[in-house]
C-alpha cells in the first residue's frame, strides 16, 4: 500500500511508512502543534502511519496568519487531504482538534472518502454547547485557564518571553473552539469513538454521549482517569486502542 502524500505545510510525517495498513491523521488541541503527536507516530509506526496536522501560525509556520474559524480550517484541510492522501484513513482529534476532525470528515465523505474510524478526544459533542469566552479574557485570566487544564508545561507559562510568543496562538485557538457551533447537515457514516477523562472540566459523559447522534455508524464512549489531558498519563492505553483498531 502506498501514499501519494506530497510535502505539504499542513502535514508532518515523522515516521514515513508507505506500506502501513492505515493512516491516522491527528488534529492538535488549542495552542497545540503537530509535534504533540510525535510519540504517537513513533509508537504506531510502521503498522500505522501518523500524519500530524500543523496549523498555520506555529512552529515552522509561525510567519503565516492564524485562522480563528474552524470551518475555514476544515475547508482547507479537506482540500489538502482529498488531493494528497490515499488509502485507508482514520482521524484522531483532541479537544478543539476533535471538532475540526469531525468537520473535515463531513467534507470528505461526499468526495468518496469514508474513514475507518473517527476518534474524538476530550471534546463535547457538537450539539452540546457551552457559552465559554476565555478568548475574551485578559491575558492573566486566559493563562490561568490554560494552566488549569494542564496541557502546557508550567515553566512555559511562567516565562514572560515565551508567553508573549504563545498568547496570540492560544487566544486565536480558544476563539475558534469557543465560537464553533454545529451546522445541521450530513454528518458521518464511519464509527465514532469518544475518549474522555473522568474529571475533565471541559466535557462530561453526558456531553460526550451525543456524539452518537452525529454518525450512522457505531459509537463507543471510553472513559479514563484524569482531566482534559488524560492521554498524557494514559498514552500507552490509547495507543494500544488505536493500534488494535487500525493495524488490522
Task: Put the structure in a nutshell.
The protein is of the alpha/beta class. 36% of the residues lie in helices and 15% in strands. Keywords: Hydrolase.
How would you portray this structure in words?
By secondary structure, this protein is α/β, with parallel strands linked by helices. It has one domain (11-129, 182-246): Alpha/Beta hydrolase fold, catalytic domain (Rossmann fold). Helix content is 36%, strand content 15%.
Cα(first) to Cα(last) distance is 14 Å
Relevant CATH superfamily: Alpha/Beta hydrolase fold, catalytic domain
Major β-sheet strand ordering: 1-3-2-4-5-6-7
Radius of gyration: 17 Å
- The secondary-structure element order is EEHEHEHEHHHEHEHH
Let me know the number of strands.
7
Oligomer: single chain
Sheet with the most strands, sense and barrel status = 7 strands, mixed
- Helix share, percent: 25-40%
Strand residues, percent: 5-15%
Question: Under CATH, the topology is which?
Answer: Rossmann fold
Unreliable segments (pLDDT under 50, ≥5 consecutive)?
1-5
Name the CATH class.
Alpha Beta
- Second CATH tier, the architecture: 3-Layer(aba) Sandwich
Please give the domain count. 1
Q: Name the shape in a single word.
A: globular
- Average pLDDT rating: 93
Give the structural class.
alpha/beta
Q: Give the number of helices.
A: 9
